[in-house]
Specification:
Largest sheet: 2 strands, antiparallel
Shape: globular
CATH topology: Lysozyme
Number of strands: 2
Structural class: mainly alpha
Helix content: 40-55%
Strand content: under 5%
CATH class: Mainly Alpha
Number of helices: 13
Number of domains: 1
Strand order of the largest sheet: 1-2
Order of helices and strands: HHHHEEHHHHHHHHH
Length: 292
């Protein structure tokens, strides 16, 4: 069992690289994955929730993490972890060895592993939601599946389609207790399903743009972009961290279709970027911001 995979104190540049590589290797959109990480943890690989077991860059709770590692760990060099995870008759994921269980859960703090599992989790949810909804699953739909679980997202989205003004807290009381600011206004009034959904959509877009994304790729499921949101240069670059800028620029210029080995040995499925006038403009603005 590997013992040196976790890097809980990760720099912003290494987090960007991890998310970019996960996007390349799974085909999931970089803008969505970056926005999700910004919203979930502020791009902090060691983030922990105070009201649940949620941990890491993508704030996976324990059962969700064990499930996605069981399904996809073997594809990404984590066969030891996937093989150690069992499942009870009622569907609960278990690991018999306490030390191995702790090691698997600690992988949530490794930005490379967390990004890969988040991308795989989003890909699984996208396919399942589209089958249920009979339409393309957008970025906010995918985030609802991450936030509420696949079953909860199906329930939320179906109910919202039928009655968008229905109270979210009434449908999901446990989630509302753990995430009061999402389900209730500052004055204590319960938010509607539509309000919760739209607030997540705006938050994801603003998070991605603030973290350095230029927007979703054509055909991406993440299509909620607010054109009024500004890309935050300088302040978001951790005191004008040139390494962060250089990493971001490199991420934006990976050629689509490149087939090179990933960091954990398997081939990249689909590269997620193509140079465009927009990314060139971003590169100019970022370098100018650094006085280059």
């Amino acid at each position: 069992m590997p013992t040196n995979l976790v890097n809980p104190v990760a720099s912003r540049s290494s987090v960007h690289s991890a998310i970019a590589q996960a996007s390349q290797r799974t085909g999931m959109d970089f803008h969505y994955l970056l926005g999700q990480a910004q919203v979930e943890s502020g791009l902090r690989a060691d983030a922990r929730a105070g009201t649940s077991s949620a941990t890491g860059l993508y704030q996976f709770i324990e059962q969700s993490w064990l499930g996605v590692v069981k399904r996809h760990g073997g594809e990404h060099g984590l066969g030891w972890a996937a093989g150690a995870i069992g499942q009870t008759a009622n569907g609960r994921y278990i690991v018999s060895d306490p030390g191995v269980r702790r090691a698997i859960l600690n992988l949530r703090n490794d930005p490379e592993v967390a990004s890969l599992m988040a991308a795989e989790h989003a890909s699984d949810n996208k396919a399942a939601l589209e089958q249920t909804l009979g339409r393309q699953a957008g970025g906010t739909d995918l985030y609802m599946a991450h936030f509420l679980g696949l079953g909860g997202a199906r329930q939320f989205l179906s109910a919202m389609e039928a009655n968008p003004d229905r109270s979210g807290a009434a449908m999901f009381p446990a989630a509302a207790r753990a995430n009061r600011s999402i389900f209730y206004t500052a004055g204590g009034q319960p938010r509607s399903l539509s309000d919760i959904y739209q607030r997540f959509a705006a938050k994801l877009d603003k998070g991605a743009m603030a973290a350095g994304s230029t927007g979703p790729q054509p055909g991406s499921p993440f299509q909620n972009l607010d054109p009024g949101v500004e890309v935050l240069l300088g302040n978001e670059a951790e005191g004008n961290d040139r390494a962060w800028v250089e990493t971001t620029l490199a991420n934006l210029n990976v050629v689509r279709g490149q087939q090179t080995p990933g960091a954990m040995g398997d081939p990249i499925r689909t590269a997620a970027y193509r140079p465009t006038p927009e990314t060139a403009r971003l590169a100019y603005l970022m370098l100018a911001n650094l006085g280059a």
